[in-house]
Amino acid sequence: MRAFAESLQGELKHWPDIHVCNVYPAVMDTPGFRDGSNYTGRAVKPVPPVYNPRRAARTIVNLARYPQPSAYVGLPAVLARLAYGMPGYKWLNASLVNLALKRARPMANSSGNLYAPASGERRIDGGFRSTDKRRKAVMAATLGGALIGFCLSRRRRQRQD
Length: 161
Hints:
Elements: H1 2-11, E1 22-25, H2 32-35, H3 53-65, E2 70-73, H4 75-83, H5 89-103, H6 133-160
Parallel strand pairs: 1-2
């Protein structure tokens, strides 16, 4: 998606009033985890921290008002951007996803809303966000520690070069 958007941005450079903006959200608390198709054989749940989807909506509205090439919503999205270039990131990310799926409870495959609209209550929120402030604080500290570790390892590599 990033390459497509950047290509489109380049093609439209002669039209300064047309903007292509990328939005990279962290995990948003939407019904997609509940209503989307799932052929993993496991109950898929979002990995915390899970953000209010209204944050992504506000970012999109702000980009319409004040365009910029890219916007990141939530600290995990920013950290993922920074970590993407690190050796082994793709392997680590895939390993974490596989571990989460192995630990998830078994569930029948479902086409979800792939072929027909979802039934039941329709709402913006998926109901996955935690209201436990202590859990949020622990998650924020963990993410902060990961960011500090990343910055220190990057600095060390730059000194070695």
